[in-house]
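Input structure tokens:
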């Protein structure tokens, strides 16, 4: 009868509010027999329908406070005032709620304990949270059709009694994964990435997270939601995919002032080949070659092998070479083994051997100080990466957080170019370690505008007498500190803070303005003081039929470089994706 009265009043007052909406305001007077719980009060509203919603909210709050019989006893109107009399009734308590047939090991996955329901006020939110936790756990472990009931339910003097029983329903296991669409990705590889293995218990969580896992792969996209078919205790999952153009082949030509004299301009070059999802199995191949100066070049080669031997471990092998001005040659060979902690995060263990050999001494170098040396460095390390970017190529929002720590044994090797007495003053073996951190953030400010901030820093730790030029970080250039030559600085400690504004003219093209502020320190060469170089400039990136064209114009200033148009840096190139 009370529910009917509320519905009748709802209809009456909604009609009444239509005529009152644009005229005088409506007042609501609330009265109750329990003045301590619901004090008498009067509130002003713009119309009677808003006043009715206020009464409904009061009833709902009372229900959440265990006044399960709370209701509106009467609802009348008097001129511009609605008068409501609310009866809260008595609070209900749990006298006892037993676990029934639910396995204790399953209950341990929730926050349910019988003592929480003994002589405790009824809390609907607490019970619904428990029910959600229980059913979620079951649907993640092969029982998507499980249900929960309260049996033997009774009420005595506002005390509630009940027994929790559940019906798990049939056990469902994964049967197969069907991939539909224009993609080369193999079913077996995708099943391992999604952790969907034939015969394993069905998990709704794996289906829900499939979009995120596939998006993180980068080379494939979901074209429509997955379809799940249950039959005879087995689940067949159909996923609709399309390949993305993520493989890269590009070259960049740079024109720099030839500070060594001769020609007016020094032409530098860079070639990159980055292949992903080779043979549809997620494997990757990387090849990068750079000619930074007339007698300097770098070479990076990498191979990525996911799900090594059917496990959840991913293998990456690296080969890096740096030939610096015919002064020294440094080579690093490394192996990285990583595992995903979640869709967005990954932890890695790596080990490698770094060797460096000196070919000549720097012109004018102090021969009483050992600035370079031959050495072998065996290192081991850990890294952690977290990435939630919304797009791998053109992000508008999200973060990248990457931190790395490594240590190892460094063994000096004598070189005939160096005086023997300089080695006699040094420890031939030492412990060397380093820390690196990268934080990127993208956030939109308007529909077509994105701010990109970046902070990168690193530090190498060792006794300054056993730390050499060919140990140090190389800072400067298009991908680190713009406005300076590639790998311009040798640094034992560095930090670069960047801010960049991007204005998108279309989804894959944008104009940019940037500022980079750097800090570099070199403890190896005492003649070099700490420096705070900065660079700024403009650029453009736009997509054409042949690929993505990039152009960046930058200026930089430091202790040794004046801010001059004659020393500006121009980089342009085209990236072909296929």
């Amino acid at each position: 009868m009370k529910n009917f009265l509320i519905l009748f009043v709802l209809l009456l007052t909604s009609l009444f509010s239509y005529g009152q909406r644009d005229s005088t305001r409506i007042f609501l007077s609330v009265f109750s027999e329990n003045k301590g719980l619901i004090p008498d009060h009067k509130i002003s509203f713009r119309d009677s329908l808003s006043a009715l919603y206020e009464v409904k909210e009061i009833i709902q709050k009372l229900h959440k406070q265990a006044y399960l019989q709370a209701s509106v006893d009467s609802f009348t109107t008097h001129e511009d005032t609605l008068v409501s009399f609310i009866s809260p009734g008595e609070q209900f308590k749990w006298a006892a709620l037993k676990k029934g047939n639910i396995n204790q090991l399953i209950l341990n996955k929730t926050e349910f304990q019988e003592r929480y329901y003994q002589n405790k006020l009824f809390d609907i939110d607490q019970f619904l949270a428990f029910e959600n936790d229980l059913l979620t756990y079951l649907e993640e472990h092969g029982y998507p059709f499980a249900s929960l009931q309260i049996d033997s339910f009774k009420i005595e003097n506002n005390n509630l009694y009940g027994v929790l029983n559940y019906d798990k329903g049939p056990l469902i296991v994964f049967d197969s994964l069907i991939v539909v669409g224009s993609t080369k990705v193999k079913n077996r590889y995708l099943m391992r990435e999604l952790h969907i293995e034939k015969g394993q218990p069905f998990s709704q969580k794996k289906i829900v997270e499939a979009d995120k896992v596939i998006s993180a792969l980068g080379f494939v996209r979901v074209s429509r939601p997955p379809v799940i078919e249950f039959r005879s205790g087995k689940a067949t999952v159909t996923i609709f995919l399309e390949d993305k153009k993520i493989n890269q082949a590009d070259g960049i030509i740079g024109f720099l002032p030839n500070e060594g004299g001769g020609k007016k301009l020094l032409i530098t070059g860079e070639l990159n080949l980055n292949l992903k999802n080779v043979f549809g199995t997620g494997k990757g191949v990387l090849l990068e070659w750079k000619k930074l100066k007339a007698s300097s070049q770098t070479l990076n080669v990498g191979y990525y092998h996911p799900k090594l031997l059917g496990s959840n471990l991913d293998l990456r092998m690296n080969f890096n070479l740096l030939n610096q001005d015919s002064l020294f040659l440094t080579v690093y060979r490394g192996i990285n083994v990583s595992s995903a902690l979640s869709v967005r995060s990954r932890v890695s263990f790596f080990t490698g051997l770094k060797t460096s050999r000196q070919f000549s001494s720097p012109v004018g170098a102090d021969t009483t100080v050992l600035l370079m040396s031959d050495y072998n460095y065996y290192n081991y390390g850990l890294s952690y990466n977290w990435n939630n970017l919304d797009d791998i190529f053109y992000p508008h929002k999200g973060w990248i957080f990457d931190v790395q720590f490594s240590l190892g044994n460094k063994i000096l090797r004598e070189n005939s170019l160096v005086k023997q007495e300089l080695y006699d003053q040094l420890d031939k073996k030492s412990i060397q370690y380093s820390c690196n951190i990268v934080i990127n953030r993208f956030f939109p400010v308007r529909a077509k505008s994105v701010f990109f901030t970046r902070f990168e820093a690193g530090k190498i730790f060792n006794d300054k007498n056993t730390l050499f030029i060919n140990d140090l970080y190389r800072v400067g250039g298009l991908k680190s500190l713009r406005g300076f030559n590639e790998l311009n600085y040798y640094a034992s400690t560095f930090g670069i803070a960047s801010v960049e504004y991007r204005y998108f003219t279309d989804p894959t093209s944008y104009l940019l303005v940037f500022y980079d502020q750097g800090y570099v320190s070199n403890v190896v060469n005492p003649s070099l003081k700490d420096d705070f170089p900065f660079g700024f400039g403009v650029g453009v990136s736009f997509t054409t039929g042949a690929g993505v064209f990039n152009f960046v114009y930058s200026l930089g200033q430091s202790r040794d470089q004046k801010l001059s148009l004659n020393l500006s840096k121009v980089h342009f190139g085209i990236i072909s994706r296929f």
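Residues 2-20 form the longest helix (19 residues). The longest strand covers residues 398-413.
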